[in-house]
Amino acid sequence: MTRLAIVLTDGFADWEVAQLTASARSYFGFDVVIATPDGAEVRSMGGMRVASDTAAENLHANAFDGLVLCGGTIWETEKAPDLKPVIDDFVAHGKLVAGICGATLALARAGVLDATDHTSNAADFIASAPGYTGHSRYKDSPQAVRDGKLVTAPGSAPMTFAAEIYRALGHAGDELDQYVLMFGAEHQPKAA
């Protein structure tokens, strides 16, 4: 069974991993583990309270197939958790590492975006991360970008973020394509 660790922080963006968590668990049969800083209860931007399964700092790559960081308000502040050791562990073990919106700042601070194709909310947004040197690999894209086992996305791309995570984990195919088309249908031009 595929096992995903999804990190939520206080002020996480409700929509950014909602499609992923729901479909991973109910449609694809993944074991989804919610982790938060210190294992504390967190509240989303919309006010939803979430209890944690474990502390984000205690995640280890040998127990999971992938690490997903949800965006939110905290990543742009001094209160952002330092998850570099966790991120480094997943990268070193060749596991999926994914970040959306503000969480791409955590990936940039950890140095994992310096030599891989990636995207974020904007080039100047990601460039604000201390130590970031991946400017030449930045892709200005409204959809998620996947480079091997690394997936990044702007906050406005939760569907392609979920789809690229599935593809990175080897779950590509007609079923996934149909799923993406179904949930992305509203973004297609209206028929005349």
Automatic annotation (TrEMBL):
Q: Which domain of life is it from?
A: Bacteria
The record ties this protein, via Gene3D superfamilies, to: 3.40.50.880
Enumerate the spans annotated as DJ-1/PfpI domain: 3-166
Q: Which GO terms describe its cellular component?
A: cytoplasm
Q: Which parts of the chain span the membrane according to its record?
A: none
> Which named protein is this?
ThiJ/PfpI family protein
